[in-house]
Amino acid sequence: MKQYVKEIVSFILLVSGIGMTWGNAAWFGEGHVRAMWYAVAFLPVGLPVLREAVGCLWEREYFNEFMLMSVAALGAFYIGEYPEGVAVMLFYSVGEKFQDAAVERARSRVKALLDVRPEVAAVVRGGSVVAEVPANVQVGETVEVKAGERVPLDGVMLGETAAFNTSALTGESLPRDIRQGESVLAGMIAMDRVVRVRVMRPYDRSELAHVLEMVQNATERKAPTELFIRRFARFYTPVVTGLAVLIVLLPFIYSLAQPGFAYVFDDWLYRALVFLVISCPCALVVSIPLGYFGGIGAASRHGILFKGGNYLDAITRVNTVVFDKTGTLTRGEFEVREAHAGNGFEADTMLAIVAAAEGNSTHPVAKAVVRYVRFRGIEPLAVTDAKELPGHGLSVRVDGREVLVGNTRLLDANGVTYPAGLASVPETVVVCAVDGVYAGYLLLADAPKEDAADAIAALKSLNINNIELLSGDKQAIVTKLAKSLGIDRAYGDLLPADKVARLEELKAEPGRKVAFAGDGINDAPVLALADVGIAMGGLGSDAAIEIADVVIQTDQPGKIATAVKIGKATRRVVWQNIALAFGVKLVVLVLGAFGVATMWEAVFADVGVALLAILNAIRIQVK
Predict the structure, then answer these.
(1) What is residue 218's predicted lDDT score, i.e. its pLDDT?
(2) Phi and psi dihedrals of 429, rounded to 5?
(3) 3-state secondary structure of 434
């Protein structure tokens, strides 16, 4: 409430003054007491606007909403309508703060930093490991990365094979096994062991730095949406100000040509000031921010954060939606989808053997297997002589039998025959062999989110029929998922630069308005480049959440269609308010110019219409 202290003080004084006027308080009507009372009520909310108006004049920007508010309020004071002068500034100030508060509340959930590179690198120097700022590490030096830590610089793997989470750069759901001599990129996370990497590129030329640079470039290419009220005031203010001047001057000029015409300056000045009070766009400057605030509030109740009212407008024009896969349409975690035994092995026995072998591994696939087996109530068997075979799997002994658990390359290397179709399965496959005999396999996949298919159907029901899927995963996996969800176009094996290129192709098509939904730092460049960037906020990366225009807190892709519906409802109510304000004001403006409308009609045309517009705007909040 602290940010509204000035408005509260002004409101209390305004209401108190109106009450004393209605109560015919004798002391309140004496001398300049009434004028001073309302002047004090005006200062807390009026001075900031007057300062902005003077600043604009100093910058030679003569026609804007600050000037219009100032002219209307001061004009109301000049003709003695002090409550109106205070109300104009009060409503304007509250409306602006509502809008600012909505945006600030949305941004409060986002982190400020885009760069996820470690601040310290562990460098091997003189036989010991020392902490160093990554920017000071030289090409050719060796850095050490512990399990769970991010690689600070691009380099070459020195030790044996290790698993890395590469989703920050490629979006791949499956951790990648990187062998000795292969490239390791900044931003990757060591999964299962301490690794050493020889630096091959300086800090500012890493792949992750390139991703962040693309984010910056894409942000600069996205032109900011200019607020409607600013554009409106630049046109409206000079017109109504000029008309008000003409109301005073034209009768005077006419009186010079027709001496019989009685020109009374005060009467025509009063008409001009009434005209200015009527012309004050209070209904617009209050109801438009409140309309967008209502839309932002309604969206928030559905777990959707809009970072500004302009994005409520932008999302209504979207006709193409592009999705990332992992973490956006899928859960981002592995689960066993199928388990098949072979060569006479019982399924439960095969699962107990596989779980025994995978039990000591921290690899996500191994954890998914153990979790699945325990869920089925099967206890893993005892293991001895466990041996890891980098890039292939594990060799263990279970109840005295030699067991191989891993990928099909492991069985190939040991001469074990298995069904031919397993090698071409796009999903992750864990195979098992016992004493050189194929025993079965488990099929794992990153499962689609529960509402993924419904999300696609809901978007199509809104006439958004061009829906695409972009991913760093294998093309076969991406194609299969797209087909199951009803997505017509799917592109796999993509790096961040490839996603940017595809977005640029789409945006180059005339009339194309593109929304992109993603969750990883690899998605940040395309989120920035899209007309509307939508981030999954629950599990999404800091970079994706920060750069996006809209954040889905619940990680449900189905909320995207909800966001479009709320955006359309908001836009509809806002334009209803614009039509209402213009319609009523146009009628009363004409009546005021001819002296038919008095200040009472002016008050209705301003405050009354503003109240109706506000009540209409509040309807959005119940969506």
Answers:
(1) 40
(2) -120, 130
(3) strand
CA dist., res. 623 & res. 91, Å (int): 24
Predicted TM-score of the model (pTM): 0.61
Measure the CA–CA gap between 509 and 513, rounded to whole angstroms. 9
C-alpha 315/C-alpha 513 separation (Å) is 9
Supply the DSSP symbol for 345. -
- Cβ proximity of 99 and 107 under 8 Å: no
Strands (DSSP E) contained in 471-587 are: 489-491, 514-518, 532-536, 550-552
Q: Which of 113-122, 138-147, 215-224, 343-352 has the lowest mean pLDDT?
A: 215-224
Among 419, 393, 416, smallest CA distance to 406 is for 393
Q: For residues 360 and 189, what is the distance between their CA atoms, to the nearest angstrom?
A: 20
Cα–Cα distance measured from residue 431 to residue 365, given in angstroms and rounded to the nearest whole number: 12
CA dist 495 and 204 (Å) reads 19
**Quick one: pLDDT at residue 430?**
92
57 contacts: CB under 8 Å, gap ≥ 6: 67
Torsion sign (Cα): 353, 359, 365, 368:
positive
pLDDT of 390 higher than 80: no
Q: Mind listing the pLDDT tens digit for each residue in 163-217?
A: 888 766 655 556 778 888 888 888 888 887 899 999 998 988 876 676 566 445 5
Backbone angles phi, psi at 398, to 5 degrees: -125, 120
Task: Dig out the tokens for 365 from the structure.
Answer: 């696939």
Contact 226, 180 (CB under 8 A): no
What is the C-alpha end-to-end distance of the chain, expressed in Å?
25
Instruction: Tell me how many degrees the CA angle 364-367-371 measures, rounded to the nearest 5.
Output: 140
Catalytic residue annotation: 324
